[in-house]
Design a protein that fits this description.
Shape: flat
Order of helices and strands: HHHHHEHHHHE
Oligomer: single chain
Strand order of the largest sheet: 1-2
Number of strands: 2
Radius of gyration: 24 Å
Length: about 325
C-alpha cells in the first residue's frame, strides 16, 4: 500500500507534452547561448580572467573586484553553466512526470543533463592548460554534441512510438547522411582555423601552429562541398516530391549561405570580434538545420492497436 501511494503522489502533477517540449526547446536555446557567451569570453581575451579551476582564484571561488572586467566576464560565463544545468535538470524531472510515458525520452534527457557538467570539466581543463587551442576546440565540439542531444529530445517528444519509416528513397537518405558527416567535418576543421587565428582568449595563450591561410582554405573547401551537397539535396527532394525534406534542405542551404558569407567577410576584414561571434552562432544554426534535414527523411508511425480478439465469455450453464 505504501508503494502504491508513493506512485500516486509522483503522478499527481503530470507534465503535458507542450510544457515538456518547451523545456526541451529552452535547453536548446540555453546551450546555444552558452556557446555564444563562451565565444565572448575568448573574443574579449577573458579566457584566463579566472586563472584556475574549479575555483576562480587559488583563494576564492568567485571573481573579485581586483580581477577587473576579464574576471567578471569569465566568472559570469561559469555561472551561466549552472543556469543551463538547471534547465536540463528540470527537463529530466519533466520527463519523469510526463504522461503517457514515451520510450527514448529519458536517455536523451539524461545525456543532455550529464553533458553539461562534462562540458564544464572540459572548460576547466582549457583553463588549467592555459587555453590550449586543441582543448578549446574540444570544448566547443562538446557543446555541439549537447545541442544535438537536446535537439533530438525536442523532436522525439512529439514522435509516436511506432517504427521508423523513410520518407525519401534510400539513396537520398544516404546523401543526407553524407551531408551531415561533411557538416561535422567542417565544424571540426573550423576549430582548427580558430586555433590558428589571433583570438586566443588571452594574450599569452599558444596557437596550434597550423598555417592560418592554409587551414582556412581547407575549411573553405569543406564549406563549398557542404553547400554543393545541400544544393543536391534540394533538387533531389523536390524531384521525388518529398515536400517536408525539400523545405528542410532549403532552410539548411539558406543558413549555410549566410554562415559562409559571414566567414568570408570576417576573413577579409581580419577577423573582427563581432563577426567571429556571429560565426559561432551560425555554426550552431548550421548544426540544427542539418539535424532538421535528417529528421525530415524519416517519420515514426503510431503504434498499431492490438488486433488480438477478446475471448468470448464462457456460457453459463444451469446447475443440475
Amino acid at each position: 500500500m505504501r508503494r502504491i501511494r508513493s506512485v500516486k503522489r509522483s503522478v499527481r502533477f503530470p507534465v503535458s507534452t507542450t510544457l515538456l517540449r518547451r523545456l526541451a526547446l529552452a535547453s536548446i536555446i540555453a546551450n546555444v547561448g552558452i556557446v555564444v557567451t563562451g565565444g565572448a569570453v575568448r573574443l574579449t581575451a577573458s579566457g584566463l580572467g579566472c586563472p584556475t579551476w574549479p575555483r576562480c582564484t587559488d583563494a576564492s571561488y568567485v571573481a573579485t573586484t581586483e580581477m577587473g572586467a576579464h574576471g567578471a566576464i569569465e566568472f559570469g560565463n561559469r555561472m551561466l553553466t549552472f543556469a543551463v544545468g538547471i534547465i536540463a535538470f528540470a527537463t529530466v524531472l519533466a520527463v519523469l512526470a510526463h504522461r503517457p510515458r514515451k520510450r527514448g525520452l529519458m536517455p536523451l534527457a539524461v545525456a543532455v543533463f550529464l553533458g553539461i557538467p562534462a562540458q564544464a570539466v572540459v572548460g576547466g581543463i582549457t583553463v588549467l592548460t592555459n587555453l590550449n587551442p586543441w582543448v578549446v576546440g574540444l570544448h566547443f565540439l562538446a557543446s555541439m554534441a549537447v545541442i544535438a542531444a537536446a535537439y533530438a529530445l525536442w523532436r522525439r517528444i512529439v514522435d509516436p512510438d511506432g517504427p521508423t519509416t523513410p520518407t525519401v528513397p534510400g539513396p537520398l537518405r544516404t546523401l543526407a547522411r553524407i551531408t551531415t558527416l561533411v557538416g561535422a567535418a567542417v565544424l571540426v576543421v573550423g576549430t582548427w582555423v580558430t586555433g590558428s587565428g589571433p583570438h586566443a582568449g588571452d594574450q599569452g595563450a599558444a596557437r596550434n601552429g597550423l598555417d592560418p591561410e592554409t587551414i582556412s582554405q581547407v575549411h573553405a573547401d569543406g564549406v563549398f562541398l557542404l553547400i554543393g551537397l545541400s544544393v543536391a539535396l534540394v533538387f533531389a527532394f523536390r524531384a521525388v516530391g518529398a515536400d517536408r525534406a525539400y523545405r528542410a534542405a532549403l532552410v539548411l542551404l539558406a543558413v549555410e549561405l549566410g554562415q559562409g558569407l559571414i566567414g568570408f567577410v570576417q576573413y577579409f576584414t581580419h577577423l573582427p570580434a563581432v563577426l567571429v561571434g556571429a560565426h559561432m552562432l551560425g555554426s550552431c544554426l548550421v548544426l540544427l538545420a542539418t539535424l532538421h534535414v535528417q529528421w525530415s527523411t524519416r517519420e515514426r508511425r503510431p503504434v498499431a492497436p492490438s488486433t488480438t480478439p477478446t475471448p468470448a465469455p464462457e456460457p453459463v450453464t444451469a446447475a443440475a
